[in-house]
Design goal:
Number of domains: 2
Radius of gyration: 20 Å
CATH architecture of the largest domain: Alpha-Beta Barrel
Distance between the termini: 32 Å
Number of helices: 13
Order of helices and strands: EEEEEHHHHEHEHEHEHEHEHEHEHEEH
CATH topology of the largest domain: TIM Barrel
Length: 387
């Protein structure tokens, strides 16, 4: 059995609300710079799916986390990876991963779009292997440590504190007892927000904070010490992601666990954070690592007694499903992220929806990733490649 076709679907979907809050029609341009996060975002929901087919008609789907210009992913897979994949066995996935990684390694492309494209292919190959063998991916990974996956509601995308508290309360009433605030607007304001959420949800709720790389070591240490009495579960991305020494210093000063990793893609990038004891919780994103590499990262973390809380932001069906399978299959899981607005859009592209209820994802039980992509709906949101 050989791989015969590789097809890419760069998508642009118009949501009701911009990711992390705001309206979709405020500006004419899709891409805009968010000063508070020092990053470009899209007012649309963008991603790139990949479909791999064998000569016997088996199909696997993957996805790269590509919130801006997903056409780049499509071009890389179509012109660089597809010739390496066609004619090969889908069960040679480790060998194929090495070839795709090596393809541009000596030119310095060991992160970024190149590895995102590799992640999409890797996810598709796992889905394909599961479909061929009629087994769910988590079984191929060695089995499930848990039959459902605990999660936290991420972001609370409301414009003011009162609305954020009300939204957190509504989720708590639905059985979701863990929330993460997307803040980083200043130490004082972050403290006010966390205190208000704690008062709203009570002592039993888990509360986390994503600071979006906005603080110095001193500021982050002050924030962590101030929030420790409020029972903050982790402080995510407090410093610039390149600052390994700063994270090591902060971890030594912080009574709150330090979480990081959404910007990293390989075990090589996570290794210095692990070896220098610069983090308590690692947050690799399967749409940037792929399933295979995320499993390597989780195993490396386990040897250092670290937990893994996979990052999951704007990835749609294949990314979400792959994250659930990996989260079930690793022993050192902390918790998985849950983005309700994104989850709803993801399910619009599936014939049978994924399920997240009462603070847990249900583990898909059918073959592969356990999702059935509605290709007609996917094609309705297809972008033109422009590279």
């Amino acid at each position: 059995m050989k791989i015969s076709h590789v097809e890419c679907f760069p998508l642009r979907i118009t949501p009701e609300q911009v990711y992390l809050g705001g309206k979709t029609n405020e500006e004419k341009t899709d891409y805009y710079y968010r000063p508070e996060y020092r990053c470009v975002y899209s007012r649309k929901m963008e991603t790139c799916l990949v479909k791999i087919t064998t000569d016997e008609g088996h199909v696997g789907w993957g996805e790269a986390l590509a919130p801006v210009v997903p056409q780049v992913i499509a071009e890389l897979i179509t012109h660089l990876f597809a010739p390496l994949l066609k004619g090969q066995s889908p069960f040679s996935s480790a060998v194929l991963n090495s070839r795709m990684y090596d393809a541009m390694r000596d030119r310095g492309h060991i992160t970024g779009y190149h590895i995102d494209a590799l992640a999409a292919v890797d996810i598709a190959l796992w889905d394909l292997k599961g479909k061929i063998l009629n087994q769910p991916v988590y079984q191929l990974l060695g089995g499930a440590y848990r039959n459902n996956v605990p999660c936290y509601v991420s972001g609370l995308p409301e414009p003011d504190l009162a609305a954020r508290c009300a939204l957190a309360k509504r989720w708590q009433e639905k059985g979701f007892t863990a929330v993460k605030l997307a803040l980083g607007y200043g130490v004082k304001e972050d403290i006010i927000n966390v205190r208000a959420i704690r008062e709203t949800l009570g002592e039993e709720a888990d509360i986390f904070l994503d600071a979006h790389w906005n603080y110095s070591v001193a500021q982050a240490a002050d924030l962590a010490n101030a929030l420790h009495p409020l029972g903050l579960g982790f402080l995510e991305a407090p410093l610039l992601p390149e600052d390994i020494a700063g994270h090591r210093e902060l971890r030594a000063k912080s009574p709150v666990p330090v979480a990081l990793g959404e910007t990293e893609r390989t075990r090589y990038q996570f290794r210095p954070f692990i070896e220098q004891r610069a983090a308590d919780i690692l947050q690799p994103d399967v749409g940037r690592t792929g399933i295979s590499e995320l499993m390597h990262i989780a195993a490396l973390a386990e040897t250092w007694n670290l937990q893994v809380a996979p990052h999951l932001s704007v990835g749609l069906g294949p990314c979400i499903a792959a994250s659930i399978h990996v989260a079930a299959a690793i022993p050192n899981l902390f918790m998985l992220e849950y983005q309700p607005p994104v989850f709803a859009i993801a399910n619009q592209l599936l014939n049978t929806p994924l399920v997240c209820e009462q603070g847990h994802y249900q583990l898909p039980q059918t073959a592969g990733l356990g999702i059935d992509i509605n290709e007609d709906r996917v094609r309705e949101s297809l972008m033109e490649t422009t590279c």
